[in-house]
What we know:
The complex is a heterodimer. Chain A is an alpha+beta fold.
Amino acid sequence: MPSSHRQVTLTINGQKYSGRAEPRTLLTYFxxxxxxxxxxxxxxxxxxxxxxxxxxxxxxxxxxxxxxQQVDGAQVLTVEGLAEGSKLHPIQEAxxxxxxxxxxxxxxxxxxxxxxxxxxxxxxxxxEIREGISGNLCMCTGxxxxxxxxxxxxDKMAPARSKRSA
Amino acid sequence: xxxxxxxxxxxxxxxxxxxLLKKLKDSxxxxxxxxxxxxxxxxxxxxxxxxxxxxxxxxxxxRKRKDDLLIGSMTTHHDVAASSVVNRRFKTLSEAAGHIGxxxxxxxxxxxxxxxxxDPAGDVPAAMLALDAEFKVAGPSKGRILEVKDFFKxxxxxxxxxxxxxxxxxxxxxxxxxxxxYLKLERGTSDLATVGVASVVTLDNSGLFEExxxxxxxxxxxxxxATKAESALxxxxxxxxxxxxxGEKASEMSNPISDIRxxxxxxxxxxKVYVGRAIRQSLGxx
Lengths: 166, 286
């Protein structure tokens, strides 16, 4: 059957990207294969593991549960957009320092889930952190250090926030 | 994990959407896609055409009126769970919506999608039964109103016609001295319910059960309205014995299968336990 390819344009990490996608092209594959942004990982690809998590028009979502054509024109934040040049985002620094990753496969999704959590709740309790990352599976089961990393990230980001608001 | 090829249609008005559904053979509505897209990837569903209703404006809202609450079908689970009026007045719904999947899924998944998907283990369908909801549906000609009690026909099957789109959920406001809850037994945060219980109870002026509605998730081929449990409560005084009897009756009405979430016997036992807890929690909120 015919399948209409369409041009899909997204603003990703502040930059315009454009590429071709057929209707069934999942956003994850579009980001990776068509646009070359391989920071977004493919895990289970059925919407369970969260490795493909991105922020789409301000909302934390799983990019494997969306078709690229569906989100034409959207604003996207991927893991590549967290650092500023060679300066890591405080959440990335915290994951580095606290060994919040083992194989690293789930890390892009974890970082964005943490980013989204701390945006809405700068001082989460351990329970809130665990709930906040519950859509992201770490197959290495390294949750203790991931939770610790998010806590440390919250500490790092808190003073910066209060300075800004002062 | 790539779905079969299909065409994606993106109407911007409801009438365009319903005429597309009428015209196109083998088409399906795409709302938030959090259930349909995985099914398509697993090739359990392979529609030739998807009609994406996400570009139609005006389908996402929560609006309280004098006698009822209206929720647009494209309102996300997150927005339902975060709505202050839903939280204050309809704990059954805020807890059901807040228990779905995970944050990512709640940010995309919609109340209308969850109802039309009609997963027997879904949280929202059971809550709709307990809340006695009505569904406003748009079709190629005149729209119609469907009552929840006639809506869930079988597993993943509803009384919606192929060319119809659910556009609004209407929930009657609860009378004074009412309380509700949704309790879910689940294996992990992102799982469907092993057993889910949605409840709404109302007491009369002398403190007897005036009305009770109980919806069960995960224990049959559709969400189940536990009418026998409701009758066991009506007109009686809340007591441990009466609540336990309602749990027994609900369990009798359930028909769970044994699967990875537990044996049929276990789930029947859990219906008793969770119905009891849900009623007590609802009473505590009056």
